[in-house]
Amino acid sequence: MEARKAKRARRRGKPGTLEEARALLWRALERAGELLEVEDPAHALKAVHAVSQGAAAYARIVEVGELEARIAALEGQGGEGEDPAPTGPRLRRGAA
After folding, report:
1. Which of 29, 42, 55, 78 is the most interior residue, by most CB within 10 Å?
2. pLDDT by residue (tens digit) across 10-22?
3. Is the alpha carbon torsion for 70, 75, 76, 79 positive or negative?
């Protein structure tokens, strides 16, 4: 059973980065955009669908990247060496 899991893990490889996915999707969008100019209407219609779906996925990837950058910036604003703010509710004396 463990051998199967190890083999499956090797076959999958490492997951790609967000930047790699963004670059790959952009290249796919460019290629699909080129296919919009073909003479065959059915082929062009498929290209329109591919561009539409790809553009939506690309927008989500860009949005996630921007959110990650914002979170990293906010995390970097915290004072270095200071104790983090306490989390959770504050209980008054005798409340527990």
Report:
1. 29
2. 777 778 888 999 9
3. positive
